[in-house]
Amino acid sequence: MKVLVAVKRVVDYNVKVRVKADNSGVDLANVKMSMNPFCEIAVEEAVRLKEKGVATEIVVVSIGPSTAQEQLRTALALGADRAILVESAEDLTSLAVAKLLKAVVDKEQPQLVILGKQAIDSDNNQTGQMLAALSGYGQGTFASKVEVSGDSVAVTREIDGGAQTVSLKLPAIVTTDLRLNEPRYASLPNIMKAKKKPLEVLTPDALGVSTASTNKTVKVEAPAARSAGIKVKSVAELVEKLKNEAKVI
Amino acid sequence: MTILVIAEHDNKVLAPATLNTVAAAAKIGGDIHVLVAGQGAGAVAEAAAKIAGVSKVLNADNAAYAHQLPENVAPLVAELGKGYSHILAAATSNGKNILPRVAASLDVDQISEIISVESADTFKRPIYAGNAIATVQSTAAIKVITVRATGFDPVAAEGGSAAVESLAATHDAGTSSFVNEELAKSDRPELTAAKIVVSGGRGMQNGDNFKHLYALADKLGAAVGASRAAVDAGFVPNDMQVGQTGKIVAPQLYIAVGISGAIQHLAGMKDSKVIVAINKDEEAPIFQVADYGLVADLFEAVPELEKLV
């Protein structure tokens, strides 16, 4: 079974982002970039499926700038077999990304597509669901457990207040939540080997996909700053303030 | 302009998040219709008809919609949605699951988790886990939007008297089926919906010590969360994690215990109304966002707090 994994290059989760002075976006100059944490979990799940003998080939795909090759190489070092970069310097919306991924799905015909549930930059939480809609496949979003058996996959999903299990006919789309697995680190020999694995570069034009958008970001601002409050001296004073000043208990 | 709001429910009870979503729809302006897609959810439709400001309720009653499977519900919403200017759902696990599928079917971009309505086509939403706020304008003929409940005060659940119309439409894609559901039986509220959250960090030292937080939480009717450091150290399971890669919470009161205040964690809780920090390190960054800081040993302060509240 072929598994396609989509990964995104984003600002590292430990970086405190700053809004640009002209409110056009956040400042990404000289900022550490990494693979989106949920995408790392997606790669790990695919690698585990291959280790179990369920997956036979893992293709990793990213839509983004040429520098996203770094994240693709990381995925190759973690165990993916080959990589595809759909190169686009523009900031694409989730729908545009989903359309590009649909074109890759048509080309590669995977049985399972695994994506992160959301990217920690745009926080959209849309792409997997949109890809599922465009391809007409079933979707198992926010997955905490994935079990392939025969021509279906059982996905346990994190839902508000608990967990839900659905059964999807393959091919299907899965998006990962935090509890699905704990991603491994790439070993040095695997990092060296990854440099020799194939990485194909495509363009939206070559895939025949329009990336036009109905959303326009008008401005980006810093959130209202929270100022430090006061230090209380005792638990009794804290309780008094919470009851009488803040009135929250 | 007519707005379609997708009701959040479990076939028995209308979830409160629906009231916040109707509040967002009211800010956009125009007629508000509510869709109840489910099975045997007549009581939900009746409750939706009473919501202040709702003029019509559409009740799509079918086995295919019983478990809110997006493969079946999204085509229904997309088909109905063609007659509306906006389609809104709460940014709950259902709303997030279904609505992008609707947007893609309608070939429009979705606007996720809005926290304010600037005009009928312009909305504010947090990005980078709330470290920046984007103002987004949509040119789509049908605007597909999820609503972060904490951004809008709920409308009144009573006062309306909308007509309920039954829909005969059936969409059963046949690509997915419901297996089972396990809802946590905890008496504590759900983390993202709780009015009070008590969270522990690396300072808790081990998982057993979280019992102090559970005791305090039970006294306050609070949910219990944790920082990534506490989760990574194996004190508590992943689903308790509050932060950029965990759950985003905005309760009335957030009590951070033994949490230093890494950016990652702050991103998940800094929209809380009142923040209390208890930490023995007075230089901890958590104090920079706390309304009330207490420099103390948590193993003395937490049991004392439990006694006094």
UniProtKB/TrEMBL annotation, chain A:
Domain Electron transfer flavoprotein alpha/beta-subunit N-terminal: 23-211
NAD listed as a keyword: no
Keyword Electron transport attributed: yes
Cofactor names: AMP
GO molecular function, one term: electron transfer activity
Swiss-Prot/TrEMBL keywords: Electron transport, Transport
Superkingdom of the source species: Bacteria
Example GO biological process: carboxylic acid catabolic process
Subunit comment: Heterodimer of an alpha and a beta subunit.
UniProt family annotation: Belongs to the ETF beta-subunit/FixA family.
Function, as annotated: The electron transfer flavoprotein serves as a specific electron acceptor for other dehydrogenases. It transfers the electrons to the main respiratory chain via ETF-ubiquinone oxidoreductase (ETF dehydrogenase).
Protein name according to UniProt: Electron transfer flavoprotein subunit beta
